[in-house]
Design goal:
The complex is a heterodimer of chains A (626) and B (291). Chain A has 626 residues and is mostly helical. Chain A has 25 helices and four strands. The chains are: A mainly alpha (626), B alpha/beta (291). Chain B: This is Phosphate/phosphite/phosphonate ABC transporter substrate-binding protein.
Chain lengths: 626, 291
């Protein structure tokens, strides 16, 4: 999955997008949330977690959300911009009364919208009226997805009211030129449409009990209809790709073998990027294996409030992704790298899975709520993941010795690394991080880095991690508690009383930084060799497995492929530098979708025809695919 | 976006503490004042202003202050009153400011290698609308009445196609004409089906979700429009103008390019060519905005 932020032009302008489904291979950059709207959305999200993280709910209102462009949190913002007091809400949070928090927070946002609408109607100049309308509309965003899902007619009616309202504010022009007067009557009529709906649905005295907190309108909830609101992530979430993009080292590719000649690997590559193999909410959010392990590496920026304690960490057995697998423990782990995967078993931070196949099935079915994968899917995923190689490092020999290219400090550090310490039971660092077996021993050890879960527990053993490539995978330890390799050295020195001098610690750090380095850790892009070109090449390679699957009439796996790749190709086109070629990519994606449509109707001739056309058109536009 | 401030919220910036490496200018013993117009979160803009002003102060050799105005009109008034020396604005507000107060263009923004862009008429792919004439009796959203790419130029395409007699006759051709408040709002209204078409910048579809982008297309495009411009008040010391302009042009250099994100995020700047705005002046006259 290759994504990048849209260009600077776009970044300069705010778009009111919500990180939500349907399947989104390329997440859209989200417009900033107003502080109180962000706090509300965070409250809805956190309020659906079990156990409910009450401290986080309090923080959501007290502090700016992660990545906020506002320097203050919702409470301070309200204090400076609103006459609406938050006391009832704060009281409900203190009482840890979930239903009351929902009711008070919902009414607060609805009142804020009305307050801004009042300001718009009362404003004495168009600029101030427009500013108030804009603010009211950004607050309305708190409820918009719930209304759109449950009451499309009302959503449309209100959407038109916002247009009408903004249009009727008039314009100040420039020094009088182009000035147009406001139309108060039209403004008030449009405002009425919005306020009436709020009064009936979000300003009610007693909300029906909510099993799931959402922005659904009260009248719809009372009707008893079952409404699916598309899953969304709360403000502060980040599921974008790494920047810079890590280099992916595939064993076959380094040997000059084309992935299109390895259909099982190519299909596994596609599955690794497919949200379709997971259940909701992951599927609806476009979360795939590559969301966390993009390019076989660690997505150090990944963050989901309530599921991550810091960037690059996630609790995959919490309440969000698959409630039935919720272990009710707040134990997010630092995402591990998958480089060199065939050498790094057993799997899981604590090495609980001896088999990569079992581990992979557990991720799909239990952690992310997907359907049982077919044997072919597991075979393909494993075939692909077992091709992940470590990053080449010219300062290291294949058997883990430093080369002459390594700095002197690292050479000194190597000696310390291999020195047995009495405090380590006469073992050295290299006893576990064995240099000639990729700096690991495939065993789990309790080194005292895990707080014991209960008295007498023997649960602190963690799988020895490789040291290869670690310069690019900070932070360190299973919980990401140590920010640098130097901090890791300090931790061992202090907790194990190794008695290293400052110079020795620096040398040992230099050794780790040398072992963990790489010649080319990141992909290099330029004006034409863009991230989109890489994505285009990947996606057309995935599609090449149709040459194998179509003759086999393997409808299930064909549809999984076409549904994934057609949507991804279309979505990734939004990242193209060559904007003029976008329509061609949309048309190409449509060709692939047509293969799927034909297979669904059992029309294999049409499927073959569309596939042939896809290949021809893909070749034709490849040069323009940047 | 709610930010309650006076018509002009002054931000005392890092200039006082800035260590200047440039030669101080005798002619400008007071701070150079920059007026910014919010395109998004004004609070973020304040942070951006602080970052860029500090850098400019060190490059130019005079203190630099920035402040946020509520709109173009307020920025132009600030230039006229002498409350601002420099401002950033669209081509249309600039030609109006030029006519009213003699504002001087210094720099033009560059996007995708050009100091110009276009306006387009966007529709949904599944709408069955393939030509401007198909929009007769249908609803359209524009960005703002004082917007060249988000109103004047896209609307002129209908005049060019002889579907509208003149700028004042739009209501007779369309069902409804809305001003949505910005490119994004106009495009979203079109993508969601609230209106049949949107008139906006050629890049405005990038403001939609990737899924929505695949669902929209455009059916008409205006001639090139000169990009947004950095202007000076009349009478600003020529040497200060030069130093400011030269400093801004250094933003094109690789080591300074990261600072462009503090200035509405263009790809760079070029010296403004006053003649490049003749088309906008003509357009403003046609719309009755200029005499």
């Amino acid at each position: 999955m290759i994504q990048k932020f849209l260009g600077a032009f776009i970044v300069a302008l705010a778009s009111a997008l919500v990180l939500s489904g349907p399947v989104a291979a390329t997440p859209a950059k989200e417009a900033p949330w107003l502080p109180e709207a962000a706090a509300y959305r965070l409250t809805l999200f956190l309020g659906n977690l079990e156990p409910l993280p009450w401290d986080d709910v309090g923080t959501a209102w007290a502090e700016p959300y992660r990545g906020s462009e506002f320097s203050v949190g919702a409470l301070a913002w309200l204090d400076g911009n609103s006459d609406i007091g938050p006391a009832p809400l704060l009281d409900a949070i203190t009482r840890e009364d979930r239903q009351a928090v929902f009711a008070e927070a919902t009414r607060l946002i609805a009142r804020r919208i009305d307050e801004e609408l009042d300001r718009a109607v009362m404003a004495d100049d168009p600029a101030r009226a427009q500013q108030a309308v804009r603010t009211a509309r950004e607050l309305y965003r708190s409820f918009a997805d719930g209304i759109a899902a449950a009451d499309p007619d009302a959503s449309r009616r209100i959407g038109l009211a916002w247009l009408e309202l903004n249009s009727s504010t008039g314009s100040a022009g420039v020094l009088g030129a182009g000035a147009t007067p406001a139309s108060r009557k039209t403004m008030e009529a449009a405002r009425e449409v919005i306020s009436l709906y709020l009064a009936e649905n979000y300003l009610v005295d007693d909300f029906a009990p909510r099993r799931t907190l959402s922005a659904l309108p009260e009248t719809v909830v009372l009707s008893g209809r079952t409404i699916e609101v598309p899953p969304s992530l709360p403000p502060g979430s980040d599921i974008f790709d790494q920047d810079p993009l890590p280099r992916l080292v595939l064993n076959f590719e380094e040997q000059g073998i084309d992935e299109t000649d390895l259909p099982l690997v190519a299909y596994g590559d596609m599955l690794f990027d497919s949200a379709q193999i997971f259940g909701n909410p992951a599927q609806g959010l476009g979360v795939a294996c590559s969301t966390c392990h993009n390019r076989s590496d660690v997505n150090q920026r990944l963050f989901i409030p309530g599921a991550s304690h810091q960037p690059g960490a996630i609790d995959v057995d919490g309440a969000f992704f698959n409630p039935i697998f919720n272990d009710r423990r707040d134990d997010p782990i630092d995402i591990p790298s998958l480089r060199g995967l065939r050498f790094t078993g057993p799997y899981g931070r604590d090495g609980r899975f001896a088999s990569l196949r079992d581990f992979t099935r557990n991720v799909i079915v239990n952690e992310f709520g997907g359907d049982e994968p077919t044997p072919f899917m597991l075979d393909a995923l494993l075939a692909y993941m077992l091709e992940f190689d470590f990053l080449p490092n010219s300062m290291l020999t294949p058997d883990g010795q430093l080369t002459e290219a390594a700095p002197e400090a690292a050479q000194r550090g190597e000696a310390i690394f291999n020195t047995p310490f009495a405090a380590l039971g006469d073992r050295s660092c290299s006893s576990c991080h064995v240099p000639d077996t990729n700096f690991l021993d495939r065993q789990a050890h309790d080194i005292g880095s895990v707080a014991l879960a209960y008295d007498g527990a023997r649960t602190g053993a963690m799988d020895t991690p490789t040291l290869l490539g670690t310069v690019y995978t900070a932070p360190y330890f299973h919980d990401g508690s140590l920010p640098t390799l130097a901090a890791v050295v300090d931790w061992f020195d202090e907790s194990k009383s190794l008695g290293l001098t400052g110079a020795e610690r620096a040398d040992l750090t230099a050794y780790l930084e040398t072992v963990g380095a790489a010649d080319e850790p990141y992909e290099a892009f330029d004006a034409e060799n863009t991230a989109f070109r890489l994505a285009f090449s990947e996606l057309t390679t995935f599609a090449s497995t149709l040459d194998t699957l179509l003759p086999q009439r393997d409808a299930k796996h064909i549809l999984l492929l076409t549904d994934t790749v057609a949507a991804d190709l279309s979505a990734d086109a939004s990242t193209m530098s060559n904007l003029a070629a976008r329509p061609e990519v949309y048309a190409l994606a449509q060709r692939l979708a047509e293969v799927g449509d034909a297979v669904r109707t059992d029309d294999w001739v049409a499927a073959e025809t569309s596939w042939t056309a896809f290949k021809s058109e893909a070749d034709a536009i490849e040069e323009r695919a940047f | 976006m709610a930010i309650h401030m006076n018509r002009r919220t002054m931000l005392a910036l890092a200039a006082a503490g800035a260590v200047s490496l440039a030669t101080p200018l005798a002619a400008q013993d007071t701070a150079l004042r920059l007026a910014f117009i919010p395109q998004e979160n004004p609070e973020k803009l304040l942070g951006d202003i602080e970052a860029i002003s500090g850098w400019l102060a060190s490059e130019i050799g005079v203190p630099v202050e920035g402040f946020v105005t509520i709109d173009h009109a307020a920025a132009v008034e600030a230039l006229r009153n002498g409350d601002a020396d420099i401002s950033f604005m669209g081509a249309l507000p600039f030609v109006l400011a030029e006519a009213e107060i003699g504002a001087v263009p210094l720099l033009s923004e560059v996007y995708r290698d050009a100091p110009s862009y276009t306006g387009r008429i966007f529709v949904r792919r599944d709408s069955g609308i393939g030509a401007l004439a198909d929009l007769r009796g249908r609803d359209i959203a524009f960005a703002d009445p004082i917007s060249e790419s988000g109103y004047l130029y896209p609307l002129a395409e209908f005049v060019e196609a002889r579907l509208i007699d003149g700028p004042g006759a739009a209501e007779a051709f369309f069902g409804r004409v809305f001003f949505a408040g910005g490119y994004q709002q106009a495009m979203q209204a079109m993508a969601e089906g609230l209106v049949d078409a949107a008139g906006a910048s050629q890049y405005a579809d990038l403001l939609l979700t990737p899924q929505q982008q695949a669902q929209v297309t455009w059916i008409a495009e205006s001639p090139p429009i000169p990009s947004h411009v950095v202007i000076a008040r009349p009478g600003l010391d020529a040497e200060v103008q030069d130093r400011f302009t030269n400093a801004m042009l250094r933003l094109n250099e690789p080591e300074n390019r990261d600072k462009l994100r503090y200035l509405y995020g263009p790809d760079g700047y070029v010296r403004a060519d006053p003649a490049a705005y003749d088309g906008v002046r003509d357009m403003a006259r046609r719309y009755g905005l200029l005499e």
